[in-house]
User: What shape does this take?
Amino acid sequence: MKVLVINTGSSSIKYQLYEMPESRGLAKGVVERIAEEVSKLAHYFAGKTHAVETKVQTHEEGMELILNTLVSKEVGVIEDISAIGAVGHRVVHGGEEFTGSVVIDDEVIASIEKFAGLAPLHNPHNLTGIKASQAKLPNIKQVACFDTAFHTTIPEVAYMYALPYDLYEKYRIRRYGFHGTSHRYVARRAAVLMGKDKYDINAITCHLGNGCSVTAVRQGKSVDTSMGFTPLEGVVMGTRSGDFDPAILFYLTDKGYDVKSLNALCNNKSGLLGISGISNDMRNLEELARKGNTRAKLAIDIFCYHIKKYIGAYSAVLDTTDAVVFTGGIGENSVWVREQICADLTQTGVELDSTANEAALAKEADISTAESKVRIFVIPTDEEAAIAHDTYELAG
Ligand code: ADP
Assistant: This one.
Protein backbone atom coordinates (compact mmCIF):
# COMPACT_ATOMS: atom_id res chain seq x y z
CA MET A 1 0.00 0.00 0.00
CA LYS A 2 1.29 3.46 -0.89
CA VAL A 3 0.83 6.24 1.64
CA LEU A 4 1.21 9.92 0.80
CA VAL A 5 2.32 12.15 3.69
CA ILE A 6 1.41 15.83 3.47
CA ASN A 7 2.68 18.75 5.55
CA THR A 8 0.96 21.99 4.59
CA GLY A 9 2.19 25.46 5.53
CA SER A 10 0.88 28.92 4.67
CA SER A 11 2.49 28.96 1.22
CA SER A 12 3.92 25.47 0.84
CA ILE A 13 3.05 21.79 0.71
CA LYS A 14 5.71 19.22 1.56
CA TYR A 15 5.01 15.66 0.47
CA GLN A 16 6.51 12.21 0.72
CA LEU A 17 5.25 8.97 -0.82
CA TYR A 18 5.96 5.71 1.04
CA GLU A 19 5.60 2.05 0.24
CA MET A 20 4.11 0.53 3.40
CA PRO A 21 4.53 -1.40 5.62
CA GLU A 22 8.24 -1.41 4.79
CA SER A 23 8.40 2.43 5.08
CA ARG A 24 10.34 2.70 1.81
CA GLY A 25 10.43 6.29 0.54
CA LEU A 26 9.50 6.42 -3.17
CA ALA A 27 9.55 10.17 -3.74
CA LYS A 28 9.41 13.42 -1.84
CA GLY A 29 9.33 17.10 -2.53
CA VAL A 30 7.86 20.48 -1.88
CA VAL A 31 5.68 23.03 -3.65
CA GLU A 32 6.71 26.45 -2.39
CA ARG A 33 5.59 30.05 -2.82
CA ILE A 34 1.96 29.17 -3.44
CA ALA A 35 -0.03 32.26 -4.50
CA GLU A 36 3.14 34.20 -5.28
CA GLU A 37 4.24 35.48 -8.70
CA VAL A 38 6.40 32.40 -9.33
CA SER A 39 5.89 29.13 -7.47
CA LYS A 40 8.44 26.33 -7.26
CA LEU A 41 8.30 22.57 -7.26
CA ALA A 42 11.28 20.49 -6.11
CA HIS A 43 10.73 16.76 -6.57
CA TYR A 44 13.19 14.04 -5.52
CA PHE A 45 12.89 10.48 -6.80
CA ALA A 46 15.24 7.56 -7.40
CA GLY A 47 18.29 9.66 -6.48
CA LYS A 48 17.32 12.36 -9.00
CA THR A 49 16.00 15.89 -8.65
CA HIS A 50 13.35 17.54 -10.77
CA ALA A 51 12.87 21.28 -10.18
CA VAL A 52 10.46 23.56 -12.00
CA GLU A 53 9.15 27.08 -11.69
CA THR A 54 5.45 27.46 -12.37
CA LYS A 55 2.36 29.29 -11.18
CA VAL A 56 0.39 27.72 -8.35
CA GLN A 57 -2.41 29.95 -7.10
CA THR A 58 -4.04 27.79 -4.43
CA HIS A 59 -3.24 24.78 -2.22
CA GLU A 60 -5.66 22.75 -4.32
CA GLU A 61 -3.60 23.57 -7.41
CA GLY A 62 -0.53 22.62 -5.40
CA MET A 63 -2.02 19.20 -4.59
CA GLU A 64 -2.87 18.76 -8.26
CA LEU A 65 0.73 19.56 -9.23
CA ILE A 66 2.03 17.03 -6.69
CA LEU A 67 -0.30 14.28 -7.92
CA ASN A 68 0.50 15.02 -11.58
CA THR A 69 4.21 14.86 -10.76
CA LEU A 70 3.84 11.54 -8.93
CA VAL A 71 2.16 9.95 -12.00
CA SER A 72 4.20 11.77 -14.67
CA LYS A 73 5.85 9.53 -17.29
CA GLU A 74 9.23 11.29 -16.95
CA VAL A 75 9.64 11.88 -13.22
CA GLY A 76 6.75 9.99 -11.63
CA VAL A 77 6.93 6.91 -9.41
CA ILE A 78 3.40 5.49 -9.78
CA GLU A 79 1.28 4.72 -12.83
CA ASP A 80 -2.00 6.02 -11.52
CA ILE A 81 -3.39 8.04 -8.63
CA SER A 82 -5.42 5.00 -7.59
CA ALA A 83 -2.15 3.43 -6.35
CA ILE A 84 -2.28 5.80 -3.37
CA GLY A 85 -4.08 3.97 -0.58
CA ALA A 86 -4.23 6.71 2.05
CA VAL A 87 -3.01 10.21 2.88
CA GLY A 88 -1.51 11.20 6.25
CA HIS A 89 -1.55 14.87 7.26
CA ARG A 90 0.59 16.62 9.83
CA VAL A 91 -1.64 18.75 12.04
CA VAL A 92 0.01 20.89 14.68
CA HIS A 93 -2.72 21.26 17.32
CA GLY A 94 -5.14 18.59 18.47
CA GLY A 95 -5.91 20.23 21.82
CA GLU A 96 -6.78 17.84 24.66
CA GLU A 97 -9.07 15.88 22.38
CA PHE A 98 -6.70 13.90 20.17
CA THR A 99 -4.48 11.48 22.02
CA GLY A 100 -3.35 9.79 18.81
CA SER A 101 -3.76 9.90 15.04
CA VAL A 102 -7.30 9.61 13.63
CA VAL A 103 -9.10 9.03 10.35
CA ILE A 104 -10.46 12.39 9.24
CA ASP A 105 -14.23 12.90 9.14
CA ASP A 106 -16.43 15.99 9.46
CA GLU A 107 -16.17 15.92 13.25
CA VAL A 108 -12.37 15.82 13.14
CA ILE A 109 -12.35 18.75 10.71
CA ALA A 110 -14.61 20.71 13.05
CA SER A 111 -12.23 20.02 15.95
CA ILE A 112 -9.17 21.10 13.97
CA GLU A 113 -11.05 24.30 13.14
CA LYS A 114 -11.91 24.71 16.82
CA PHE A 115 -8.23 24.48 17.80
CA ALA A 116 -7.18 27.03 15.17
CA GLY A 117 -7.28 29.70 17.87
CA LEU A 118 -4.57 27.77 19.77
CA ALA A 119 -2.34 27.43 16.68
CA PRO A 120 -3.34 30.29 14.35
CA LEU A 121 -0.12 30.01 12.33
CA HIS A 122 -0.51 26.31 11.62
CA ASN A 123 -3.92 24.66 11.99
CA PRO A 124 -5.73 26.77 9.34
CA HIS A 125 -3.04 25.85 6.79
CA ASN A 126 -3.05 22.18 7.82
CA LEU A 127 -6.78 22.24 7.24
CA THR A 128 -6.39 23.84 3.83
CA GLY A 129 -4.08 20.95 2.92
CA ILE A 130 -6.61 18.39 4.14
CA LYS A 131 -9.42 19.97 2.14
CA ALA A 132 -7.26 20.23 -1.00
CA SER A 133 -6.32 16.58 -0.60
CA GLN A 134 -9.94 15.53 -0.05
CA ALA A 135 -10.94 17.45 -3.18
CA LYS A 136 -8.31 15.71 -5.31
CA LEU A 137 -8.50 12.26 -3.71
CA PRO A 138 -12.14 12.05 -2.57
CA ASN A 139 -12.40 8.30 -2.18
CA ILE A 140 -9.43 7.48 -0.02
CA LYS A 141 -8.90 7.69 3.72
CA GLN A 142 -7.21 10.80 5.07
CA VAL A 143 -5.53 10.60 8.47
CA ALA A 144 -4.57 13.43 10.83
CA CYS A 145 -1.42 13.09 12.97
CA PHE A 146 -1.16 15.74 15.67
CA ASP A 147 2.08 17.29 17.02
CA THR A 148 0.38 17.55 20.40
CA ALA A 149 -0.94 13.96 20.62
CA PHE A 150 2.19 12.36 22.13
CA HIS A 151 2.09 14.88 24.96
CA THR A 152 -1.49 14.15 26.05
CA THR A 153 -0.06 11.70 28.61
CA ILE A 154 1.61 14.56 30.53
CA PRO A 155 0.10 14.59 34.04
CA GLU A 156 -1.88 17.52 35.41
CA VAL A 157 0.92 18.50 37.79
CA ALA A 158 3.17 19.15 34.77
CA TYR A 159 0.67 20.58 32.31
CA MET A 160 -1.05 23.11 34.62
CA TYR A 161 0.40 26.59 35.00
CA ALA A 162 0.25 28.31 38.38
CA LEU A 163 -2.25 30.83 37.02
CA PRO A 164 -5.84 31.25 38.25
CA TYR A 165 -7.51 27.89 37.68
CA ASP A 166 -10.47 29.40 35.87
CA LEU A 167 -8.19 30.35 32.95
CA TYR A 168 -7.85 26.62 32.33
CA GLU A 169 -11.58 26.10 32.72
CA LYS A 170 -12.53 29.02 30.49
CA TYR A 171 -9.78 29.02 27.87
CA ARG A 172 -8.00 25.71 28.25
CA ILE A 173 -4.74 27.49 29.05
CA ARG A 174 -2.25 24.73 29.87
CA ARG A 175 0.92 23.12 28.53
CA TYR A 176 0.25 21.24 25.29
CA GLY A 177 3.76 20.66 23.93
CA PHE A 178 4.78 20.27 20.30
CA HIS A 179 7.18 18.22 18.12
CA GLY A 180 5.35 15.19 19.56
CA THR A 181 5.69 13.03 16.45
CA SER A 182 9.45 13.57 16.50
CA HIS A 183 9.87 12.93 20.24
CA ARG A 184 7.80 9.74 19.96
CA TYR A 185 9.74 8.54 16.91
CA VAL A 186 13.20 9.00 18.46
CA ALA A 187 12.13 7.62 21.86
CA ARG A 188 10.91 4.46 20.12
CA ARG A 189 14.08 4.21 18.04
CA ALA A 190 16.14 4.57 21.24
CA ALA A 191 14.13 1.71 22.76
CA VAL A 192 14.91 -0.43 19.69
CA LEU A 193 18.62 0.47 19.89
CA MET A 194 18.66 -0.59 23.56
CA GLY A 195 16.74 -3.81 22.86
CA LYS A 196 13.83 -2.58 24.98
CA ASP A 197 10.09 -2.56 24.48
CA LYS A 198 8.75 0.86 23.41
CA TYR A 199 6.93 1.14 26.76
CA ASP A 200 10.00 0.16 28.74
CA ILE A 201 12.23 3.18 28.20
CA ASN A 202 12.88 6.33 30.21
CA ALA A 203 14.44 8.95 27.97
CA ILE A 204 15.12 12.64 27.64
CA THR A 205 14.64 13.53 23.99
CA CYS A 206 16.10 16.80 22.66
CA HIS A 207 14.62 17.98 19.37
CA LEU A 208 16.98 20.79 18.36
CA GLY A 209 16.13 22.38 15.02
CA ASN A 210 14.95 25.90 14.27
CA GLY A 211 12.33 25.22 16.90
CA CYS A 212 13.68 23.32 19.90
CA SER A 213 12.05 21.27 22.63
CA VAL A 214 13.10 18.77 25.27
CA THR A 215 10.78 15.99 26.47
CA ALA A 216 10.83 13.66 29.46
CA VAL A 217 9.63 10.20 28.40
CA ARG A 218 8.72 7.72 31.14
CA GLN A 219 7.84 4.14 30.16
CA GLY A 220 7.56 5.28 26.54
CA LYS A 221 5.12 8.11 27.31
CA SER A 222 5.64 11.84 27.43
CA VAL A 223 5.44 13.08 31.04
CA ASP A 224 6.76 16.61 30.55
CA THR A 225 7.97 18.80 27.73
CA SER A 226 9.60 22.21 27.46
CA MET A 227 7.23 23.84 24.95
CA GLY A 228 3.98 24.93 26.52
CA PHE A 229 0.71 26.59 25.57
CA THR A 230 2.55 27.70 22.43
CA PRO A 231 5.96 26.76 20.97
CA LEU A 232 7.48 29.88 22.56
CA GLU A 233 8.17 28.35 25.97
CA GLY A 234 11.17 26.25 26.91
CA VAL A 235 14.74 26.24 25.63
CA VAL A 236 16.38 28.90 23.42
CA MET A 237 15.51 28.50 19.72
CA GLY A 238 16.55 30.01 16.39
CA THR A 239 14.38 33.12 16.73
CA ARG A 240 12.24 32.32 19.82
CA SER A 241 13.28 33.33 23.30
CA GLY A 242 12.23 30.26 25.26
CA ASP A 243 11.69 30.82 29.02
CA PHE A 244 12.05 34.30 30.48
CA ASP A 245 10.37 36.40 33.14
CA PRO A 246 6.96 37.42 31.72
CA ALA A 247 7.15 40.65 33.74
CA ILE A 248 9.65 41.85 31.11
CA LEU A 249 6.66 42.14 28.77
CA PHE A 250 4.77 44.39 31.21
CA TYR A 251 7.88 46.51 31.59
CA LEU A 252 8.23 46.82 27.81
CA THR A 253 4.54 47.73 27.52
CA ASP A 254 5.30 50.69 29.77
CA LYS A 255 8.12 51.57 27.38
CA GLY A 256 5.65 51.76 24.46
CA TYR A 257 5.70 48.27 22.96
CA ASP A 258 2.32 46.94 21.83
CA VAL A 259 1.14 43.32 21.77
CA LYS A 260 1.95 42.83 18.10
CA SER A 261 5.53 44.07 18.42
CA LEU A 262 6.08 42.02 21.61
CA ASN A 263 4.81 38.93 19.81
CA ALA A 264 7.25 39.55 16.95
CA LEU A 265 10.05 40.30 19.43
CA CYS A 266 9.60 37.01 21.31
CA ASN A 267 8.88 34.74 18.34
CA ASN A 268 10.92 36.21 15.48
CA LYS A 269 13.68 38.41 16.89
CA SER A 270 14.91 36.57 19.98
CA GLY A 271 16.73 33.28 20.56
CA LEU A 272 20.02 32.67 18.76
CA LEU A 273 19.26 35.58 16.41
CA GLY A 274 18.43 37.98 19.20
CA ILE A 275 21.51 37.21 21.30
CA SER A 276 24.00 37.08 18.43
CA GLY A 277 22.43 39.95 16.50
CA ILE A 278 23.61 38.13 13.37
CA SER A 279 21.96 34.80 12.64
CA ASN A 280 19.46 32.19 13.79
CA ASP A 281 21.46 29.48 12.02
CA MET A 282 23.71 27.35 14.23
CA ARG A 283 26.13 26.61 11.38
CA ASN A 284 26.77 30.34 10.86
CA LEU A 285 27.13 30.92 14.58
CA GLU A 286 29.66 28.11 15.01
CA GLU A 287 31.71 29.47 12.12
CA LEU A 288 31.63 33.01 13.52
CA ALA A 289 32.38 31.86 17.07
CA ARG A 290 35.41 29.94 15.80
CA LYS A 291 36.65 33.17 14.24
CA GLY A 292 36.34 34.94 17.60
CA ASN A 293 32.90 36.56 17.40
CA THR A 294 31.93 36.84 21.08
CA ARG A 295 28.19 37.42 20.58
CA ALA A 296 27.93 34.30 18.39
CA LYS A 297 29.79 32.37 21.11
CA LEU A 298 27.49 33.77 23.80
CA ALA A 299 24.41 32.69 21.80
CA ILE A 300 25.76 29.11 21.59
CA ASP A 301 26.70 29.14 25.28
CA ILE A 302 23.22 30.26 26.39
CA PHE A 303 21.56 27.75 24.01
CA CYS A 304 23.57 24.84 25.46
CA TYR A 305 23.18 26.05 29.06
CA HIS A 306 19.37 26.07 28.83
CA ILE A 307 19.24 22.55 27.38
CA LYS A 308 21.61 21.30 30.05
CA LYS A 309 19.27 22.75 32.71
CA TYR A 310 16.28 20.93 31.19
CA ILE A 311 18.21 17.65 31.07
CA GLY A 312 19.03 18.09 34.77
CA ALA A 313 15.41 18.91 35.61
CA TYR A 314 14.02 15.98 33.63
CA SER A 315 16.56 13.61 35.19
CA ALA A 316 14.91 14.54 38.48
CA VAL A 317 11.42 14.07 37.00
CA LEU A 318 12.28 10.62 35.61
CA ASP A 319 14.17 9.29 38.62
CA THR A 320 16.09 6.87 36.37
CA THR A 321 17.08 7.75 32.83
CA ASP A 322 18.03 5.15 30.23
CA ALA A 323 18.93 7.50 27.39
CA VAL A 324 19.40 11.09 26.26
CA VAL A 325 18.60 11.51 22.57
CA PHE A 326 19.68 14.30 20.22
CA THR A 327 17.69 14.95 17.05
CA GLY A 328 16.71 17.81 14.69
CA GLY A 329 19.12 19.73 12.45
CA ILE A 330 21.33 20.87 15.35
CA GLY A 331 20.97 17.72 17.47
CA GLU A 332 21.85 15.47 14.54
CA ASN A 333 24.76 17.53 13.20
CA SER A 334 26.37 19.78 15.76
CA VAL A 335 29.33 18.07 17.43
CA TRP A 336 30.01 21.31 19.32
CA VAL A 337 26.51 21.67 20.79
CA ARG A 338 26.28 18.01 21.90
CA GLU A 339 29.74 18.20 23.49
CA GLN A 340 28.94 21.41 25.35
CA ILE A 341 25.55 20.20 26.59
CA CYS A 342 26.94 16.91 27.87
CA ALA A 343 30.04 18.41 29.50
CA ASP A 344 29.86 18.14 33.32
CA LEU A 345 26.64 16.16 33.28
CA THR A 346 28.27 13.19 35.00
CA GLN A 347 26.15 13.84 38.11
CA THR A 348 23.13 12.77 36.05
CA GLY A 349 25.00 9.71 34.75
CA VAL A 350 25.59 11.20 31.28
CA GLU A 351 29.13 10.72 29.95
CA LEU A 352 29.96 11.61 26.36
CA ASP A 353 32.54 9.81 24.22
CA SER A 354 34.16 12.69 22.31
CA THR A 355 35.49 10.52 19.49
CA ALA A 356 32.12 8.86 18.92
CA ASN A 357 30.48 12.29 19.07
CA GLU A 358 32.77 13.65 16.35
CA ALA A 359 31.97 10.69 14.10
CA ALA A 360 28.20 10.95 14.54
CA LEU A 361 26.86 13.15 11.78
CA ALA A 362 23.23 12.76 10.71
CA LYS A 363 23.19 9.04 11.42
CA GLU A 364 22.10 6.85 14.30
CA ALA A 365 24.92 6.49 16.80
CA ASP A 366 25.60 5.81 20.46
CA ILE A 367 27.94 8.60 21.56
CA SER A 368 28.26 7.68 25.23
CA THR A 369 31.28 6.09 26.89
CA ALA A 370 31.09 2.42 27.86
CA GLU A 371 30.98 3.54 31.53
CA SER A 372 28.16 6.07 31.05
CA LYS A 373 25.11 5.10 33.13
CA VAL A 374 22.89 6.80 30.57
CA ARG A 375 23.16 6.02 26.84
CA ILE A 376 23.49 9.11 24.65
CA PHE A 377 22.11 8.68 21.14
CA VAL A 378 22.07 10.71 17.96
CA ILE A 379 18.91 9.67 16.12
CA PRO A 380 17.85 11.48 12.93
CA THR A 381 14.17 12.22 13.28
CA ASP A 382 11.69 11.03 10.66
CA GLU A 383 8.32 12.59 11.36
CA GLU A 384 7.06 11.69 7.89
CA ALA A 385 7.83 7.99 8.42
CA ALA A 386 5.98 8.12 11.75
CA ILE A 387 2.97 9.74 10.05
CA ALA A 388 3.10 7.15 7.24
CA HIS A 389 3.18 4.41 9.87
CA ASP A 390 0.14 5.77 11.74
CA THR A 391 -1.73 6.32 8.47
CA TYR A 392 -1.03 2.78 7.33
CA GLU A 393 -2.16 1.35 10.68
CA LEU A 394 -5.43 3.33 10.62
CA ALA A 395 -6.25 3.01 6.93
CA GLY A 396 -4.89 -0.45 6.24
P1 ADP B 1 13.50 22.93 11.23
O1 ADP B 1 13.19 23.05 12.67
O2 ADP B 1 13.13 24.15 10.43
O3 ADP B 1 13.05 21.63 10.60
P2 ADP B 1 16.15 21.78 11.15
O4 ADP B 1 15.76 20.64 12.00
O5 ADP B 1 16.56 21.53 9.75
O6 ADP B 1 15.08 22.95 11.16
O7 ADP B 1 17.37 22.52 11.90
C1 ADP B 1 17.93 23.70 11.42
C2 ADP B 1 19.11 24.04 12.30
O8 ADP B 1 20.08 22.96 12.21
C3 ADP B 1 19.82 25.31 11.86
O9 ADP B 1 20.16 26.10 13.00
C4 ADP B 1 21.09 24.78 11.23
O10 ADP B 1 22.15 25.67 11.30
C5 ADP B 1 21.36 23.55 12.08
N1 ADP B 1 22.33 22.66 11.44
C6 ADP B 1 22.19 21.94 10.31
N2 ADP B 1 23.36 21.32 10.00
C7 ADP B 1 24.26 21.67 10.95
C8 ADP B 1 25.63 21.37 11.21
N3 ADP B 1 26.33 20.57 10.40
N4 ADP B 1 26.21 21.90 12.29
C9 ADP B 1 25.51 22.72 13.13
N5 ADP B 1 24.23 23.04 12.95
C10 ADP B 1 23.60 22.53 11.88
The chain has a mean pLDDT of 96. The pocket of adenosine-5'-diphosphate is lined by residues 209-211, 238, 281-283, 286, 328-330, 333-334 (CB under 6 Å).
